[in-house]
């Protein structure tokens, strides 16, 4: 009997047990057989078997057993040194799509997946396609800060998801004056990673929603291709739009000028601005001076 | 009618857009080249309830 028909038979038996409600037995048997494949280095069959098994358990709402198999799949990925590719990512995406966002260990599952994509891919923080799916799953489960982190490093589609997450959050806050708290997050996060395109997309989309929702008074100010919404009552929203333009110029004088004008209202952004100063304008972060060390090195003739 | 802030903005934008910018408005660093995520943003005071979304 060829491997593949054996695999098909195993899966059929597994499926029958799931349908009969024998989840524990189905799970254990599948693990035993998968183990055998792994020991004989037949990784492809092991991967197929575990994936199909996890999917069947997810469909049967057996989150605990299913996530156990997903962790096992990641172990096999690791042993077999499966690299990040369309196929290897798609398999994880399919599993993620079927996972209940309320699953108690969903955060561990996505961390495991992302760690694999870091180890066997080319991005320091993991694969963007995987991030896009992880981000929306975490958002559905209410893990907002974790979702945010993945969406920032996601695909082009993640921008809209990030905006809609922030928008829901903002409208839930029940206080329209807090717009800057929400708007500032994607602006800073995208500027931090050098993504001006997304920063501008957020400016456009979030602020249009804001204007429509609140009816805030605004004027459009346009000059040489740059366009912004000027708000009478929201200095922070004005500042953040100007900040994108300023980073784009990489002109340190403009950056200083902007900070001086808004000094009063941007105290809460000091560490963010310090970082941007360094990244875009070459302004070195001053380390706190250690007087004692200076005196000692002075005495000893050092520098 | 123009407020000091509005005046500042108009001047600032003129100045900032005088020359071609170093970076294009469409620019983005490829994620392969991202080696730093900046500083962690503080948590917000408002709780998000995904059941209401």
TrEMBL record, chain A:
Any Pfam family the entry gives: GET4
InterPro entries, per the entry: GET4, TPR-like_helical_dom_sf
GO biological process: protein insertion into ER membrane
Top-level taxon: Eukaryota
Cellular compartments per GO CC: TRC complex
Family: Belongs to the GET4 family.
Protein name: LANO_0A05864g1_1
Species of provenance: Lachancea nothofagi CBS 11611
């Amino acid at each position: 009997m060829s491997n593949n028909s054996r695999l098909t038979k195993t899966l059929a038996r597994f499926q029958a047990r799931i349908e009969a409600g024998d989840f524990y037995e189905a799970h254990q048997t599948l693990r035993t057989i998968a183990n055998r494949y792994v020991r004989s280095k037949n990784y492809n069959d092991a991967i197929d078997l575990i994936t199909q098994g996890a999917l069947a358990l997810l469909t049967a709402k057996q989150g605990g057993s299913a996530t156990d198999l997903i962790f096992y799949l990641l172990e096999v990925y690791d042993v077999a040194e499966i690299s990040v590719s369309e196929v290897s990512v798609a398999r994880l995406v399919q599993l993620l799509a079927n996972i209940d966002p309320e699953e108690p260990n969903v955060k561990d599952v996505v961390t495991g997946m992302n760690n694999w994509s870091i180890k066997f891919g080319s991005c320091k923080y993991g694969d963007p396609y995987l991030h896009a799916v992880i981000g929306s799953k975490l958002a559905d489960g209410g893990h907002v800060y974790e979702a945010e982190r993945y969406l920032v490093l996601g695909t082009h589609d993640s921008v809209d998801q990030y905006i809609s997450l922030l928008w829901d959050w903002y409208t839930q806050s029940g206080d329209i004056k807090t717009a800057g708290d929400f708007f500032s997050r994607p602006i800073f996060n995208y500027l931090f990673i050098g993504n001006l395109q997304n920063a501008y997309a957020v400016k456009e989309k979030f602020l249009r929603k804001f204007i429509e929702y609140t009816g805030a008074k605004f004027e459009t100010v346009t000059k040489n291709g740059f366009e912004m919404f000027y708000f009478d009552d929201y200095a922070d929203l004005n500042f953040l739009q100007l900040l994108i333009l300023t980073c784009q110029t990489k002109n340190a004088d403009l950056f200083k000028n902007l900070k001086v004008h808004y000094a009063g209202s941007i105290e809460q952004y000091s560490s963010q601005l310090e970082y941007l100063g360094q990244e875009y304008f070459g302004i070195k972060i001053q380390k706190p001076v250690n007087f004692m060390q200076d005196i000692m090195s002075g005495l000893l003739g050092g520098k | 009618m123009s407020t000091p802030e509005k005046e500042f903005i108009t001047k600032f934008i003129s100045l900032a857009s005088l020359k071609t910018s170093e970076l294009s408005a469409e620019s983005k660093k490829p994620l392969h080249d991202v080696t730093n995520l900046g500083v962690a943003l503080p948590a917000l005071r408002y709780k998000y309830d995904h059941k209401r979304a």
